[in-house]
TrEMBL record:
Listed name of the protein: Fibrinogen C-terminal domain-containing protein
Keywords in alphabetical order: Signal
Cellular component terms (Gene Ontology): extracellular space
PANTHER family: ANGIOPOIETIN-RELATED PROTEIN 1-LIKE-RELATED (PTHR19143:SF428), FIBRINOGEN/TENASCIN/ANGIOPOEITIN (PTHR19143)
Domain called Fibrinogen C-terminal: residue spans: 69-281
UniProt key word S-adenosyl-L-methionine: no
Superkingdom as given in the UniProt entry: Eukaryota
Protein backbone atom coordinates (compact mmCIF):
# COMPACT_ATOMS: atom_id res chain seq x y z
CA UNK A 1 0.00 0.00 0.00
CA UNK A 2 0.98 3.64 -0.18
CA UNK A 3 2.63 5.16 2.81
CA UNK A 4 2.64 8.81 3.52
CA UNK A 5 5.72 9.87 5.35
CA UNK A 6 5.32 13.20 7.04
CA UNK A 7 8.26 15.50 7.36
CA UNK A 8 8.23 16.78 10.92
CA UNK A 9 10.87 19.42 10.44
CA UNK A 10 12.84 21.21 7.81
CA UNK A 11 16.36 20.17 7.12
CA UNK A 12 19.46 22.23 7.55
CA UNK A 13 19.82 23.22 3.91
CA UNK A 14 16.61 25.15 4.16
CA UNK A 15 17.80 27.18 7.09
CA UNK A 16 21.18 27.86 5.53
CA UNK A 17 20.12 28.64 2.01
CA UNK A 18 17.00 30.69 2.52
CA UNK A 19 18.33 32.88 5.26
CA UNK A 20 17.53 36.51 4.41
CA UNK A 21 20.85 37.55 5.92
CA UNK A 22 23.51 38.00 3.24
CA UNK A 23 26.25 35.39 3.28
CA UNK A 24 29.71 36.44 4.37
CA UNK A 25 31.06 36.32 0.85
CA UNK A 26 28.26 38.58 -0.29
CA UNK A 27 26.14 35.92 -1.93
CA UNK A 28 23.44 33.53 -0.84
CA UNK A 29 23.34 29.88 -1.77
CA UNK A 30 20.66 30.43 -4.37
CA UNK A 31 22.62 33.09 -6.18
CA UNK A 32 26.08 31.69 -5.66
CA UNK A 33 28.39 32.51 -8.55
CA UNK A 34 30.04 29.69 -10.45
CA UNK A 35 33.41 30.47 -8.95
CA UNK A 36 32.16 29.78 -5.45
CA UNK A 37 34.11 26.88 -4.08
CA UNK A 38 33.86 24.64 -1.10
CA UNK A 39 36.93 23.18 0.51
CA UNK A 40 35.39 19.76 0.96
CA UNK A 41 37.36 16.93 -0.59
CA UNK A 42 35.96 13.51 -1.29
CA UNK A 43 37.70 10.35 -2.42
CA UNK A 44 37.36 9.14 -5.98
CA UNK A 45 36.40 5.62 -5.13
CA UNK A 46 34.31 4.44 -2.23
CA UNK A 47 32.32 1.26 -2.06
CA UNK A 48 28.61 1.70 -1.92
CA UNK A 49 25.93 -0.77 -2.92
CA UNK A 50 23.54 0.43 -5.55
CA UNK A 51 20.07 0.11 -4.12
CA UNK A 52 17.48 -1.59 -6.18
CA UNK A 53 14.70 -2.20 -3.71
CA UNK A 54 11.26 -1.04 -4.64
CA UNK A 55 9.10 0.88 -2.26
CA UNK A 56 5.97 2.89 -2.46
CA UNK A 57 5.66 6.52 -3.45
CA UNK A 58 6.03 8.93 -0.58
CA UNK A 59 4.83 12.45 -0.35
CA UNK A 60 6.61 15.03 1.71
CA UNK A 61 4.25 17.14 3.76
CA UNK A 62 3.96 20.86 3.05
CA UNK A 63 6.20 22.97 5.21
CA UNK A 64 6.48 26.60 6.08
CA UNK A 65 8.94 28.77 4.11
CA UNK A 66 7.90 29.07 0.51
CA UNK A 67 11.15 29.13 -1.37
CA UNK A 68 12.09 25.49 -0.90
CA UNK A 69 8.58 24.16 -1.32
CA UNK A 70 6.31 24.82 -4.25
CA UNK A 71 2.84 26.28 -3.86
CA UNK A 72 1.51 22.75 -4.06
CA UNK A 73 3.69 21.79 -1.12
CA UNK A 74 6.24 19.56 -2.79
CA UNK A 75 9.92 19.98 -1.94
CA UNK A 76 12.23 21.44 -4.58
CA UNK A 77 14.46 18.35 -4.49
CA UNK A 78 15.32 15.35 -2.32
CA UNK A 79 17.69 17.35 -0.09
CA UNK A 80 14.65 18.67 1.80
CA UNK A 81 13.66 15.27 3.15
CA UNK A 82 14.40 14.60 6.77
CA UNK A 83 17.57 12.60 7.23
CA UNK A 84 15.60 9.67 8.65
CA UNK A 85 13.52 9.32 5.48
CA UNK A 86 14.19 6.09 3.59
CA UNK A 87 15.31 5.92 0.00
CA UNK A 88 12.37 5.66 -2.35
CA UNK A 89 10.06 7.41 -4.76
CA UNK A 90 9.00 10.92 -3.73
CA UNK A 91 7.26 13.78 -5.49
CA UNK A 92 9.37 16.91 -5.92
CA UNK A 93 8.66 20.14 -7.73
CA UNK A 94 11.60 22.28 -8.83
CA UNK A 95 10.87 25.95 -9.55
CA UNK A 96 8.93 26.40 -12.81
CA UNK A 97 8.54 22.63 -13.13
CA UNK A 98 5.49 20.43 -12.83
CA UNK A 99 5.60 17.96 -9.93
CA UNK A 100 7.77 14.95 -10.71
CA UNK A 101 8.17 11.53 -9.15
CA UNK A 102 11.85 10.89 -8.52
CA UNK A 103 13.96 8.40 -6.64
CA UNK A 104 15.48 10.00 -3.55
CA UNK A 105 18.71 8.31 -2.50
CA UNK A 106 19.06 8.49 1.28
CA UNK A 107 21.74 5.79 1.45
CA UNK A 108 24.61 7.39 -0.45
CA UNK A 109 26.99 9.47 1.65
CA UNK A 110 25.42 12.78 2.59
CA UNK A 111 21.83 11.62 1.95
CA UNK A 112 19.23 13.72 0.15
CA UNK A 113 20.44 12.96 -3.39
CA UNK A 114 18.02 13.25 -6.30
CA UNK A 115 18.60 10.49 -8.85
CA UNK A 116 18.53 11.82 -12.42
CA UNK A 117 19.89 8.73 -14.21
CA UNK A 118 20.15 5.08 -13.45
CA UNK A 119 21.27 2.30 -15.74
CA UNK A 120 22.20 -1.34 -15.48
CA UNK A 121 24.19 -3.35 -18.00
CA UNK A 122 21.33 -5.76 -18.60
CA UNK A 123 18.72 -3.00 -18.86
CA UNK A 124 15.61 -3.44 -21.00
CA UNK A 125 15.91 0.23 -22.03
CA UNK A 126 17.56 0.79 -25.41
CA UNK A 127 18.68 4.35 -24.53
CA UNK A 128 18.51 5.17 -28.28
CA UNK A 129 15.70 7.62 -27.81
CA UNK A 130 14.73 10.85 -29.52
CA UNK A 131 15.46 14.39 -28.38
CA UNK A 132 11.89 14.79 -27.12
CA UNK A 133 11.90 11.49 -25.27
CA UNK A 134 15.15 12.50 -23.55
CA UNK A 135 13.66 15.94 -22.89
CA UNK A 136 10.75 14.60 -20.84
CA UNK A 137 12.42 11.46 -19.55
CA UNK A 138 11.82 7.73 -19.84
CA UNK A 139 12.13 4.49 -17.93
CA UNK A 140 11.04 3.62 -14.42
CA UNK A 141 12.20 5.81 -11.53
CA UNK A 142 12.30 2.66 -9.39
CA UNK A 143 14.80 1.20 -11.84
CA UNK A 144 16.62 2.31 -14.96
CA UNK A 145 15.58 5.76 -16.13
CA UNK A 146 16.47 9.19 -17.44
CA UNK A 147 14.69 11.88 -15.46
CA UNK A 148 14.44 14.17 -18.48
CA UNK A 149 16.90 16.71 -19.83
CA UNK A 150 14.34 19.49 -19.34
CA UNK A 151 13.88 18.47 -15.69
CA UNK A 152 17.65 18.38 -15.27
CA UNK A 153 17.65 21.97 -16.51
CA UNK A 154 14.78 23.06 -14.26
CA UNK A 155 16.21 21.26 -11.25
CA UNK A 156 19.70 22.70 -11.58
CA UNK A 157 18.71 26.25 -12.50
CA UNK A 158 16.95 26.84 -9.17
CA UNK A 159 20.16 26.89 -7.16
CA UNK A 160 23.76 25.72 -7.18
CA UNK A 161 23.94 21.95 -7.52
CA UNK A 162 26.72 19.40 -7.23
CA UNK A 163 26.75 16.03 -8.96
CA UNK A 164 28.05 12.57 -8.32
CA UNK A 165 28.54 10.20 -11.26
CA UNK A 166 28.59 6.63 -9.93
CA UNK A 167 29.59 3.43 -11.69
CA UNK A 168 29.79 -0.10 -10.33
CA UNK A 169 32.29 -2.37 -12.02
CA UNK A 170 31.49 -5.91 -13.01
CA UNK A 171 33.63 -6.92 -10.02
CA UNK A 172 31.01 -5.15 -7.88
CA UNK A 173 33.25 -2.26 -6.83
CA UNK A 174 31.58 1.13 -6.84
CA UNK A 175 33.45 4.25 -7.92
CA UNK A 176 32.33 7.80 -8.18
CA UNK A 177 33.41 11.18 -9.47
CA UNK A 178 31.93 14.28 -7.90
CA UNK A 179 31.86 17.88 -9.20
CA UNK A 180 31.03 20.83 -7.00
CA UNK A 181 28.87 22.50 -9.63
CA UNK A 182 26.49 20.83 -12.06
CA UNK A 183 23.95 22.44 -14.31
CA UNK A 184 22.22 21.82 -17.61
CA UNK A 185 21.33 24.97 -19.50
CA UNK A 186 18.17 25.56 -21.51
CA UNK A 187 16.87 23.62 -24.49
CA UNK A 188 17.33 26.77 -26.60
CA UNK A 189 21.06 26.58 -25.92
CA UNK A 190 21.15 22.81 -26.58
CA UNK A 191 21.10 21.58 -22.96
CA UNK A 192 24.87 21.99 -22.53
CA UNK A 193 26.52 20.40 -19.52
CA UNK A 194 28.22 22.79 -17.09
CA UNK A 195 30.48 21.27 -14.48
CA UNK A 196 32.49 22.88 -11.71
CA UNK A 197 35.58 21.63 -9.96
CA UNK A 198 36.32 17.93 -9.87
CA UNK A 199 36.29 16.63 -6.31
CA UNK A 200 38.27 13.43 -6.22
CA UNK A 201 41.70 11.89 -6.20
CA UNK A 202 41.69 10.07 -9.52
CA UNK A 203 41.53 11.16 -13.09
CA UNK A 204 38.84 13.53 -14.26
CA UNK A 205 37.23 12.38 -17.48
CA UNK A 206 34.49 14.96 -17.73
CA UNK A 207 36.10 18.40 -17.40
CA UNK A 208 39.58 17.59 -18.70
CA UNK A 209 40.45 16.85 -22.32
CA UNK A 210 41.43 13.31 -23.34
CA UNK A 211 42.60 12.92 -26.91
CA UNK A 212 42.80 9.16 -26.42
CA UNK A 213 39.05 8.95 -25.89
CA UNK A 214 36.41 11.40 -27.01
CA UNK A 215 37.72 14.78 -25.93
CA UNK A 216 35.76 16.44 -23.15
CA UNK A 217 32.20 16.48 -21.81
CA UNK A 218 32.01 19.75 -19.90
CA UNK A 219 30.32 22.47 -21.98
CA UNK A 220 29.20 20.01 -24.66
CA UNK A 221 25.63 20.22 -25.91
CA UNK A 222 23.34 17.22 -25.55
CA UNK A 223 23.01 15.00 -28.64
CA UNK A 224 20.45 12.36 -29.55
CA UNK A 225 19.87 10.16 -32.60
CA UNK A 226 17.70 12.89 -34.12
CA UNK A 227 19.71 15.91 -32.99
CA UNK A 228 23.45 15.85 -33.63
CA UNK A 229 25.14 18.59 -31.64
CA UNK A 230 28.47 16.85 -31.13
CA UNK A 231 31.91 17.73 -32.50
CA UNK A 232 32.24 14.55 -34.54
CA UNK A 233 31.69 14.29 -38.30
CA UNK A 234 29.02 11.66 -37.69
CA UNK A 235 26.43 11.46 -34.91
CA UNK A 236 27.88 9.92 -31.76
CA UNK A 237 24.39 9.27 -30.38
CA UNK A 238 23.66 6.72 -33.11
CA UNK A 239 25.86 4.14 -31.40
CA UNK A 240 24.43 4.16 -27.87
CA UNK A 241 22.21 6.86 -26.39
CA UNK A 242 21.80 10.56 -25.80
CA UNK A 243 24.74 12.22 -24.06
CA UNK A 244 26.93 15.32 -23.88
CA UNK A 245 29.19 14.07 -26.66
CA UNK A 246 32.33 15.72 -27.99
CA UNK A 247 33.91 13.34 -30.52
CA UNK A 248 32.68 11.16 -29.01
CA UNK A 249 33.06 10.20 -25.33
CA UNK A 250 35.44 9.71 -22.44
CA UNK A 251 32.60 8.46 -20.29
CA UNK A 252 29.24 7.08 -21.37
CA UNK A 253 26.50 5.97 -19.01
CA UNK A 254 23.48 6.05 -21.35
CA UNK A 255 23.83 2.79 -23.23
CA UNK A 256 22.24 -0.64 -23.41
CA UNK A 257 24.91 -3.21 -22.60
CA UNK A 258 27.42 -0.38 -22.65
CA UNK A 259 28.37 1.59 -19.52
CA UNK A 260 31.85 2.98 -20.07
CA UNK A 261 34.34 4.55 -17.69
CA UNK A 262 38.08 4.36 -18.52
CA UNK A 263 40.04 2.20 -16.12
CA UNK A 264 36.93 0.90 -14.37
CA UNK A 265 34.98 -0.59 -17.26
CA UNK A 266 37.15 0.15 -20.27
CA UNK A 267 35.19 -2.21 -22.49
CA UNK A 268 31.84 -0.67 -21.54
CA UNK A 269 31.01 -3.48 -19.15
CA UNK A 270 30.18 -1.69 -15.90
CA UNK A 271 27.33 -3.36 -14.05
CA UNK A 272 25.43 -0.17 -13.29
CA UNK A 273 25.50 3.60 -13.16
CA UNK A 274 23.82 6.43 -11.28
CA UNK A 275 23.85 10.20 -11.58
CA UNK A 276 22.98 11.92 -8.31
CA UNK A 277 22.50 15.64 -7.68
CA UNK A 278 21.94 17.80 -4.64
CA UNK A 279 22.49 21.42 -3.68
CA UNK A 280 26.13 22.34 -3.27
CA UNK A 281 27.42 22.28 0.31
CA UNK A 282 27.27 25.58 2.09
CA UNK A 283 30.79 26.91 2.42
CA1 LIG B 1 28.28 15.37 -35.46
Amino acid sequence: GTHLVLLPALVAMLLLCVSPAPAKQGSSCLSAPAEKRCSQQVPLAVEHPVRSSISSIRTAAPQQPASTFSSTGFPADCSHLTSSSPSGVYVIQPAASPPRAVWCDMDTEGKGWTVVQRNTYTTEITWKESWTTYKYGFGNVQGDHWLGTEYLHLLTQQGTYKVRFVVRSNANVTHYAEYDIFSVESEASGYPLRLGRFLGGGEDYLTSYHTRYGGIHDNMKFSTTDRDQDQHSGNCANSYGGWWYDKCQNVLLNGKRYIFWPGICSSGDCASSLILVKPTDVC
